[in-house]
Amino acid sequence: MKRTTLFLEEATERELRLLAQREKLPVAALVRDALGRYLDEARRGKELRLRFLAAGRSGHHDTAERAEELLWRDLQPHSSRRWAPTRTRGRK
Q: CA 69, CA 63: separation in Å to the nearest integer?
């Protein structure tokens, strides 16, 4: 075997560590197994799709252009005054 380093998102690393504890396996064993399965599927020519792609398909073609409008449309302003960052105590 060869040692390597992986850079993972913190949330992914946390989930991986918790799974390893639950399964009573080393993290390295889980990673080796997952990568082995991924490469087996790739060798067989199976389509390797990310499951979350197109999960939020709305059928609209202008969603990216309207992102700000869609994001803020249901929010009601608390006052007519625009938001401004507040100062932290002790700082000027």
A: 9
Joined together, the tokens standing for residue 28 give: 């390295």
Q: In this structure, are residues 18 and 3 in contact, taking their beta carbons and an 8 Å threshold?
A: no
Share of the chain above pLDDT 90, in %: 27
Which amino acid type is present at position 72?
Answer: W
Q: In this structure, which amino acid lies at residue 10?
A: E
Q: How far is CA 10 from the centre of its chain?
A: 10
Which pair of structure tokens corresponds to residue 44?
A: 């067989």
The predicted-structure confidence for 33-51, as pLDDT tens digits, reads as follows 998 888 888 887 766 555 5
Measured at the CA of 22, the angle between CA 48 and CA 3, to 5 degrees, comes to 60
